[in-house]
Hints:
Elements (H helix, E strand, L loop, with lengths): L6 H6 L12 E3 L4 H9 L5 E5 L5 E6 H9 L9 H4 L8 E2 L4 H11 L3 E5 L5 E6 H15 L1
Parallel strand pairs: 1-2, 4-5
Antiparallel strand pairs: 2-3, 5-6
Amino acid sequence: MSKPLSPVEQFNKRAIREVMKEPLPILETSTIEIASAKLSASPSEMVEVVDNQGKLVGVATKTSIMKAMLERGSQKNEKITTKATYTQPLTIKDTQIVAEAIFLMNTNRVDKLPVVNDNGVLVGTISRKDLLDEVGSYLRFSL
């Protein structure tokens, strides 16, 4: 007979969709100024860039936006995808488990991942802070 899973082991096996947060998307046609304003009004360090169907096309960080705004010749009304978007971001699917998110974040030294469904549509985000908050809550109610 196998030993029952600990609360942490149970938490690690939860699907990402159970713990993900709402994303902070902007359309790929948005300007650097719009992205900057959206990030300024948020504690997040990253916005997800999506197409008209909601498919993730990239991410823009506070740093990439700041660099684009400071670059000579850049215009604040320039499209976000022109200068400030990373077009091949690391992602995780909503069906994957928490342990995989932790592994991806640790291996790639990132603090936040966009969450996509099987069609590549952005459905959420997951961050280290989210995971720590969730595991804390989970343990409080499981012990």
